[in-house]
Amino acid sequence: MATKLYVLTIFILLISIAGNAAAAEAQQCPSKSKGECHDKAQSLKLKLIAISSILVTSMIGICLPILSRKVSALQPDKDLFVVVKAFASGVILATGYMHVLPDSFDCLRSECLPESPWRKFPFTTFVAMLSALLAMMVDSFSMSYSRKSFLRRAAAREEDEESAKNNRCPDQLEHFGHGHGIKTEDGLNGKDSQLLKHRVVAQVLELGIVVHSVVIGLSMGASDNPCTMRPLIAAICFHQFFEGMGLGGCILQTEYGSKIKAVMVFFFSTTTPFGIALGIALSNVYSDHSPTALIVVGLLDAASAGLLNYMALVDLLAADFMGRKLQANVKLQTWSYIAVLLGIGGMSLMAKWA
């Protein structure tokens, strides 16, 4: 049920973005000068290259951590995994602050929009703040719902075990297991509680990434400027690869079955190419500078930024750095901070092109 709801949420989100993009009115605001570097045919070739390269890069990035179970050094309990995850978390944090948030400011403070209310009220930070709060609410309510679901299943298992135990002969009882792990005050053992947290984090994080990815793809697909597109493709591939590693690390810790993992990999890998394809299809009616497009993209970017920043700081970085593993190992903690700074630095540098 949770999987179907998750898939439906992402599907509705993609459809709503597509619908709003299609409704953008291209004639209400003059676009920027096209300049000398305007070649629709060349741009189309680059867009097709972008679709394939970004798709492959995204799949490699998100699948590497998931497939790392076969590599002992990259197991979730190993130090190397912690450092790599810290790097990827830095990438996600920088994505929110250095890429998504500035884009939202640019859109919602554009001269193509009326001064009132768009340039008289900080809509970007307001929506980002609400989005971060919404992410915390989703975190909280999802954990509560999942705990109740876990407890119901655990109670059913215990009843079955008790029934089976009562039906056994006395000499068989000594071989029957008694341990169920140490339970916390909410009725879950520590492993179950941590597993629930990992699952909520992975799903909410992917929702934020999906929004941003479609918007990026849509902008690229609607552009006819091959000069800016070439470095943009390289930057987005870098971005998707390391963002995928961060998300893949979260998915690895969820211990989901192969079906749910495949669904999450599919949505992450295809949303940016989907956005590019959508931009190509709407290139005759969609304009980056139409008021409708600016408002829709600006608000979506602001919401995505708030969500990504919350998830990166609270659910990824704070959870790891305040956890027992890093608190007990100052050397590992230092290397992890260096990895975070490298991730932030790399993505901040990419902000020049994407």
TrEMBL record:
Q: Which GO terms describe its molecular function?
A: zinc ion transmembrane transporter activity
Q: How does it sit in the membrane?
A: Multi-pass membrane protein
Signal peptide position in this chain?
1-23
Q: Which keywords label this protein?
A: Ion transport, Membrane, Signal, Transmembrane, Transmembrane helix, Transport
Q: Which Pfam families match?
A: Zip
Q: Where in the cell is it found?
A: Membrane
Which residue ranges traverse the bilayer?
A: 50-68, 80-101, 121-143, 200-220, 232-252, 264-286, 292-313, 334-353
Q: Which InterPro entries match?
A: ZIP, Zn/Fe_permease_fun/pln
Q: Which GO terms describe its cellular component?
A: plasma membrane
Q: Which NCBIfam families does the UniProt entry name for this protein?
A: zip
Entry's family note? Belongs to the ZIP transporter (TC 2.A.5) family.
Protein name per UniProt: Uncharacterized protein
Which source organism does the UniProt entry give?
Malus baccata
